[in-house]
Every structure is written in structure tokens, then in C-alpha cells.
Task: inverse folding
């Protein structure tokens, strides 16, 4: 059925594209002179400003202009004249092709011959579907080069370098179970968790399209993509469901792959924690070729890491030495991306990846017994793949259409051994996510306004997600299946985005250099679950040349996961004496409580209202300086969660009265117990007597919670020229967060940010990088703020976690011989060996530090070598 719907959607989209691709001749953009007043800045920024002012499409590969500067441009210029002046002295040239200007290196004949439509896709940035458009939300861009200079070895490291991200949840560094959530990362994945709203509330894309979810929690494992394959990562830490659909409540991260590579480069890395454990080995290769009508890139990456155990850290004295703090893992990854012109104006692009990862995790149950006596040993195997072909078609009058198909699978198989007093019982878990979809969209100019050219992007598509879960236990030779289901969901959607420039520089309006409005609307239908319409409004206002103000307001949503809808009802019969304080009036002596938990087939989509405002200042008196500040607010309603915290204190809490049925009829108790598919756990030590069940307490998940998150983001970039070849780059980023949660309407809000196992109020990073002709040196100070531990009457303040990173690289200048194309890189994260602060756990067998915010890795020394052949 999904393919019939796909054909129907494609026909409708093609009809719409044909209708809107024939605007009147007023859309033509002759090469007339316009007034420009541009300061010296990054060449890429100058080219974008010229494109916006002249209405001429200017195409370039980001790596071609990276690190280059453009001189000031003041006066009247045509697009060709302005670009020629901007490129003076850079070694780059501009050539006209299909109405666009393509910027390339003089020595690169393959880039010169590429068609305009193939490269123009790079002009679309995350946060807008308008080519060469400006996002009304701040964009955080991290290039591969910047990540390498920061000491990142893979994209899991990126999650720890981004101040807007909370490293709790599905993160390889989370060691503790229980409140720390270490067991939620059952397969050693790495997911983004913007604003601490949960990995399922951050939408992660690969080259602008979706990939299959990971395990049960609807996050995306970014560690499956090797860093060598990445061109850059763009992050919008603002609600964006109107543009991208479900899950984009906390924001969107778009991993953009390198589209081509000429030649072959190999690499090898080795490193370890100086305190013990965590021996890492990595080897890989990136290769590719360019030709007159296309090119491709392929990356293979292998990595192996030994675990850090509690016995490897002398400050962890109250935990059995066999407890895992980080996991043993072995991973193979392969990424391929490429493009080919089929005919003039039609190009085919393709990206895909495959990942294979094995891990081993040891969890002890008691402080004085090893994992093989009383503990849990998990051995997950994860295999994931994705493929996405894209057909791009140039249409008349500057329009472009694209047809995108996607398919992907993430399969987790876990062989688990549980040991109780040395007796082993086996459990086998299977979680398989599949995704396939189709999308057709188009973008182009509508008409010219006094401020520029109004542009429209439209699209429609459908997607199917499937989750298969099977959990089986081997007890004394008998295999018992405790959970087995396969469920799928079809999603149909349509969207549109309009960019309307009201004022441009050529109008010379006082205090309004540029003013652009944008509006987006998206409709999504999640079959048998919910229908959602989400809008977003944006404003980009540039009063003066060096100041840009942005504002956005919108609504976002997240559909319930297939796991949440399919969790089996569970029951437990518990003595009423366990609940303190008791209800009023108290239960009769000897009465029990029937506790109900599990999923809920009636769940609806979670919804949020979000807004943000930001200011970006690039002062003319300090060339290369950029300062940015933004505020954000997220009001998240209908959050799917268990509505009770403090289970055994809940029966006497009047806030939970709507969840409790006191003195239930025996027939009701018998009917509920008979309907539990797995039966119930009887902890009373006596047979069930329906007449002695004094209360039914239902804590099943529901659309109950409301969550608020608000705060401030700050950013600094200062690029200083120290000579003909040397540069100094100073960067800083900080994020302040306040968040609170209300589990049930009418309850008071409970503070989350600043509490143990939750995001701190402050996270930040301040760094400086010197880049020379053949060497670089980078240092950075990382700050994770203090949190409070209020689990006991005396509140404990967990001190901040502050680390210093140092990274250096050297490139050989040899023109021939074995050293030609060789680069050495030394990384020293946590140079001073900062240790996590110890905490007081009620359970002595728990990990004694907050692993969601602080790391046991300690000082790490890594050395890598790359060679271009």
C-alpha cells in the first residue's frame, strides 16, 4: 500500500511542480549593478551576501573557500564584477554555467565542468528549505577540520563538545543504571540530546534525510558515521517540526557528508587513558575520484576500544572492580557518497552507510560481588545500514525539483547473561528498526519584491517505520518468550516554506539594511495515532551592515514511539505496608496494592510551542570578530512519561488520587489480573485474595507531563591574521539552561536543570587555535556546571567538571618520497587528569559519580598519522 501511496504522492508533487515552475518573466534576474557595502570577512560569507543582493546564484564547495578572506566591497557592481573582486588573490575563479556563477580552483578542471544543479544543493542550509536562504534560528556549524583540531576522534566526541547537548541518555560514557539511565543505552550508541529533552526529541538527519531509529528509544546513533566522511554538522537548537516533522522539539542536527574526494588518504590512530584502560585503536581510508560529470567518495573506518572497569580507577573504592565504566567495543563502518550528471540539468546523488559494532557491558548488582556472581553481562551486536538516492532536476525560471528515496535498518541483537549467586540465566533480545520513505519537493523564485526575490519551497512525501521486538529467556533449558511484537506506522506529510524579503540594501532605508520574513507550514498524518499541523514564523532583520537580528516562533511535535504504544501491561501485587506515608484513611492491615505499569495504546503526539531570538554582531572595527547571543523558550506539553516519581511514597500523596482506585471490587481485580499477558509478580508471600486488595495504583505511561526549557546561548569567534600564512582563531560557546517538569496537571513543577543526573545550568567551551602553514596548535577549556544532589536530607553540591584539552598537528612539507602528504596529530584531552566528583548513593552498588555529566576517562593521549597518496 505504501508504494501505491508513493506513486500517488509523486504524481501530485509533479503536478504542483509543473504549475509553480512557470512564473512570469518578471522572475528573470538580469545581471544589473547593485549597491554593495560589505566589510572584509570570510569569503563564503561575502559570496552569500553578493548572491542575496544581486539575485544571482553563486555556487561553491565549502572546502574550496574554507579559511579564505574577501576584501571590502563598497560601490555599485554586477554579480560578475563583485565576485571577481572578492576572489582577487585567492587563486579561485568564477565561471558562468546554467545562469549561475561557479567558484572553483584554477587547477581543478573537474569542478569547473560540474553542472550548476549538482552543486546548488550545498547552498541550502539546515533551518530552511530555501536555497541560499537565511534561517531565522541560529545555526551552529562544526566542520570536520574544527572537530579534528578539538581532538574529536568520532561523532560520539562531538556530543561532548556541543554545549547545547546533554550527555545523559544514550551516550557511551553513561555508566550507572537506575537514575543515571545507563541501561537505556543498551547497545553502546551515541545520540544527540539537545536541551536535555531526550534523544527522541532531537531529530538527526544525514544529508537532510532521515535514517532508521536505534534500539527502542527513537534516537539516532551518530557514532555509525566515521568522522572522515563528514564535511560538517549543522545544528539548529530550536523547534523545527514545521520544516522537518516529528521529533524536532529540541532541535535538528544535520550531518552533511563530503560529496567528493580526489585521491586516497589512509590513517591510523592509537591512544589510551593514562590512568588505565580505554586502549583505542583506529584505522581507516578515504578515497574517491572526480570526473567531468560527477565524482564519489568512499570511507572505511575500523576502531577497537578496551573497557574502563571500576578496578582501573583508584578513587572508586566502594564498587566491585568488574563493573564497566566504559564498554569494550569493536566497530567497522563504511560510507559512500557521490553524484553523476545524467543529462544537462538532471543529476543523480547517492549516499549510504553500513556499520557493524560489537560491545560488552558488565553491570554488578552488589558492591562486594563480581559480575559473574551477581550481575548482568550484555553482549550487543548492532548492524545498521542506510541508502538514499536523490534525483535533482533543473526546471525553467530558476526552479529546482528533487525526488528522494530512503531506506534503512538498525538491528540490535543482545546475548545477555544474568548471574544470581553464580547461577547463569540467558536472555536474548532483538530490536530491529526499519525505515523507508519517498519525498518530492521543489524550490524556486516567485517574484521580485523591493527587497529581493520571494522564494517558495514545497514538498510532500510518505514514510513507513517498523519496529520488531523479541525478548526470550532461557531458564533451565526452557526458552520462554516474554515479549514479541512487530508494529509499523505509515506517515503522510506535506509542507511549504515562503521567504519574503521586504527590504534590501539597494533601497537604502535608514536603520533597515535588510528585512526578510519567512513562514512555514507542515501537515503530518501518523496513521492510527494523530494528525498534526505545525506552523513556524521567522524574521531576519539587519539594521546595519554588522548587526543581524533573528527571531522565530513555531510549534513542534513528537509522535509516540512504537515501543511506547506496544509495551505490555505489567502488574505486581505489593504489601500495603511498603507504601509510606500511608493513604488517609490507611489501608486495613494485611491489605495489598495492585500496581499496574506498562504502555498505553491511546497515546497521542507530544506538542510544544517554541520561540527564539538572537543577535549576531560582526563589528567593522574588529575584522574577523563575530559575537552571537540568543534566548530560547520551549513549552513542551503532553510529554509521554510515567506519571509518578517516588513510587512507594505515592499512595499517600493526594496529587496521585486520580491514578488510584481505593477499595476496588473483587470482580474488577480479577478482571485486571486475568488481562495481564505476562501475569503478575506477587511480592506479598500469600496467594491473591481479590477481597484483600485495598487499592489499584496505575502508573502506566501516558500523555501526562509538561516540560519547560528556557535559557541563553552565547558564541564567540575571532579570526586574526598573524602574518602571510599564520592565523589565530579564538572560539567560545556557552549555554545556560533552566528546565522543569510537571508530571500531572495540577502538580507543582519540579526543577530538572541543575539536579544530579540532569543537565547542569551551565555548559561551555573556550578555545584558541593557531594555524600555520604546516602546523597547528589548539587548546580548549571545557566547563560542565555544578549540580545538586537532593536525594538525602542534606543536599550535596557536586562541583563543576573542568577539563583542559590540548591538540597539535604537523604536516610534512616534502614534495616527494615517503613523507609526502604525511600529517601527524597529537591529542591530549583532559590534560590535567580531572577526576569526577564522588557522590553518596543510597545503593552502595551504584556507580559513585554522575556519569551523565562527568567522565571517568581521565587524561587521554592519542597519536594519529594520515598520509595522502
Result:
Amino acid at each position: 500500500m505504501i508504494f501505491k501511496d508513493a506513486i500517488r504522492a509523486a504524481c501530485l508533487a509533479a503536478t504542483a511542480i509543473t504549475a509553480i515552475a512557470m512564473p512570469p518573466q518578471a522572475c528573470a534576474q538580469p545581471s544589473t549593478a547593485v549597491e554593495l557595502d560589505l566589510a572584509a570577512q570570510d569569503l563564503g560569507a561575502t559570496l552569500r551576501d553578493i548572491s542575496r543582493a544581486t539575485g544571482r546564484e553563486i555556487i561553491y564547495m565549502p572546502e574550496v573557500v574554507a579559511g579564505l578572506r574577501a576584501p571590502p566591497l563598497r560601490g555599485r557592481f554586477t554579480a560578475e564584477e563583485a565576485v571577481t573582486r572578492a576572489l582577487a588573490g585567492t587563486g579561485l575563479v568564477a565561471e558562468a554555467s546554467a545562469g549561475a556563477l561557479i567558484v572553483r580552483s584554477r587547477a581543478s578542471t573537474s569542478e569547473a565542468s560540474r553542472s550548476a544543479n549538482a552543486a546548488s544543493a550545498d547552498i541550502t542550509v539546515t533551518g530552511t528549505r530555501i536555497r541560499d536562504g537565511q534561517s531565522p534560528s541560529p545555526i551552529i556549524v562544526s566542520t570536520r577540520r574544527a572537530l579534528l583540531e578539538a581532538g574529536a576522534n568520532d561523532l560520539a566526541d562531538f556530543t561532548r563538545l556541543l554545549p547545547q547537548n546533554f550527555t545523559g541518555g544514550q551516550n557511551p560514557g553513561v555508566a550507572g543504571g537506575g537514575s543515571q539511565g545507563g541501561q537505556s543505552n543498551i547497545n553502546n550508541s551515541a545520540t544527540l540530546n539537545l536541551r536535555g529533552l531526550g534523544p527522541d526529541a532531537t531529530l538527526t538527519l544525514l544529508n537532510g534525510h532521515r535514517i532508521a531509529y536505534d534500539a527502542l528509544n527513537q534516537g539516532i546513533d551518530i557514532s555509525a558515521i566515521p568522522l572522515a566522511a563528514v564535511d560538517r554538522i549543522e545544528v539548529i537548537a530550536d523547534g523545527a517540526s514545521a520544516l522537518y516533522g516529528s521529533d524536532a522539539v529540541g532541535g535538528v542536527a544535520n550531518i552533511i557528508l563530503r560529496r567528493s574526494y580526489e585521491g586516497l588518504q589512509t590513517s591510523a590512530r592509537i591512544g589510551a587513558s593514562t590512568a588505565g584502560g580505554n586502549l583505542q585503536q583506529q584505522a581507516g581510508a578515504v578515497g574517491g575520484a572526480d570526473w567531468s560529470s560527477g565524482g564519489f567518495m568512499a570511507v572505511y573506518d575500523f576502531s577497537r576500544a578496551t573497557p574502563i572497569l571500576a578496578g582501573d580507577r583508584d578513587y572508586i573504592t566502594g564498587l566491585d572492580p568488574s563493573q564497566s565504566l566504559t564498554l569494550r567495543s569493536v566497530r567497522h563502518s563504511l560510507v559512500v557518497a557521490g553524484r553523476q550528471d545524467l543529462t544537462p540539468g538532471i543529476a543523480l546523488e547517492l549516499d549510504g552507510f553500513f556499520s557493524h559494532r560489537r560491545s560488552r557491558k558488565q553491570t554488578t548488582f552488589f558492591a562486594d560481588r563480581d559480575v559473574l556472581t551477581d550481575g548482568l553481562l550484555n553482549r550487543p551486536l548492532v548492524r545498521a545500514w542506510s541508502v538514499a538516492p536523490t534525483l535533482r532536476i533543473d526546471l525553467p525560471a530558476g526552479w529546482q525539483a528533487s525526488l528522494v528515496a530512503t531506506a534503512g535498518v538498525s538491528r540490535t541483537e543482545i546475548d545477555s547473561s544474568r548471574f544470581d549467586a553464580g547461577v547463569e540465566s540467558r536472555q536474548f533480545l532483538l530490536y530491529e528498526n526499519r525505515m523507508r520513505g519517498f519525498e518530492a519537493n521543489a524550490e524556486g523564485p516567485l517574484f521580485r519584491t523591493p527587497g529581493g526575490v520571494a522564494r517558495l519551497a514545497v514538498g510532500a512525501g510518505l514514510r513507513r517505520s517498523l519496529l520488531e521486538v523479541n525478548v526470550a529467556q532461557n531458564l533451565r533449558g526452557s526458552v520462554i518468550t516474554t515479549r514479541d511484537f512487530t508494529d509499523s506506522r505509515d506517515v503522510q506529510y506535506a509542507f511549504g516554506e515562503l521567504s519574503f524579503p521586504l527590504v534590501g540594501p539597494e533601497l537604502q532605508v535608514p536603520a533597515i539594511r535588510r528585512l526578510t520574513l519567512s513562514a512555514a507550514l507542515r501537515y503530518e498524518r501518523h496513521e492510527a495515532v494523530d494528525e498534526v499541523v505545525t506552523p513556524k514564523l521567522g524574521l531576519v532583520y539587519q539594521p546595519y551592515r554588522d548587526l543581524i537580528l533573528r527571531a522565530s516562533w513555531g510549534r513542534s511535535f513528537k509522535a509516540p514511539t512504537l515501543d511506547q504504544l506496544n509495551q505490555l501491561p505489567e502488574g505486581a501485587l505489593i504489601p500495603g505496608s511498603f507504601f509510606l506515608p500511608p493513604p488517609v484513611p490507611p489501608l486495613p492491615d494485611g491489605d495489598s496494592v495492585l500496581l499496574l505499569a506498562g504502555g498505553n495504546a491511546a497515546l497521542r503526539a507530544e506538542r510544544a510551542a517554541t520561540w527564539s531570538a538572537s543577535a549576531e554582531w560582526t563589528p567593522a572595527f574588529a575584522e574577523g570578530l563575530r559575537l552571537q547571543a540568543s534566548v530560547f523558550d520551549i513549552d513542551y506539553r503532553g510529554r509521554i512519561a510515567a506519571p509518578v516519581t517516588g513510587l512507594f511514597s505515592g499512595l499517600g500523596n493526594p496529587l496521585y488520587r486520580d491514578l488510584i482506585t481505593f477499595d476496588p471490587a473483587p470482580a474488577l481485580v480479577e478482571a485486571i489480573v486475568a488481562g495481564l499477558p505476562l501475569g503478575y509478580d506477587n511480592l506479598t508471600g500469600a496467594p491473591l485474595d481479590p477481597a484483600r486488595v485495598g487499592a489499584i495504583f496505575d502508573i502506566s505511561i501516558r500523555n501526562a507531563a509538561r516540560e519547560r526549557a528556557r535559557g541563553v546561548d552565547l558564541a564567540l569567534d575571532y579570526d586574526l591574521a598573524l602574518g602571510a600564512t599564520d592565523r589565530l582563531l579564538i572560539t567560545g560557546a556557552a549555554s545556560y539552561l533552566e528546565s522543569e517538569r510537571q508530571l500531572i496537571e495540577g502538580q507543582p513543577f519540579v526543577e530538572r536543570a541543575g539536579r544530579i543526573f540532569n543537565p547542569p545550568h551551565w555548559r561551555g567551551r573556550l578555545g584558541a587555535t593557531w594555524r600555520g602553514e604546516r602546523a597547528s596548535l589548539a587548546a580548549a577549556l571545557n566547563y560542565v556546571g555544578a549540580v545538586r544532589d537532593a536525594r538525602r536530607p542534606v543536599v550535596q553540591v557536586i562541583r563543576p567538571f573542568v577539563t583542559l584539552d590540548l591538540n597539535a598537528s604537523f604536516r610534512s612539507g616534502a614534495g616527494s618520497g615517503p613523507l609526502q602528504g604525511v600529517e601527524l596529530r597529537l591529542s591530549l584531552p583532559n590534560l590535567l587528569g580531572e577526576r569526577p566528583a564522588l557522590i553518596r548513593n543510597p545503593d552502595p552498588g551504584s556507580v559513585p559519580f554522575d556519569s551523565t555529566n562527568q567522565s571517568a576517562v581521565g587524561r587521554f593521549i592519542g597519536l594519529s598519522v594520515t598520509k595522502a597518496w
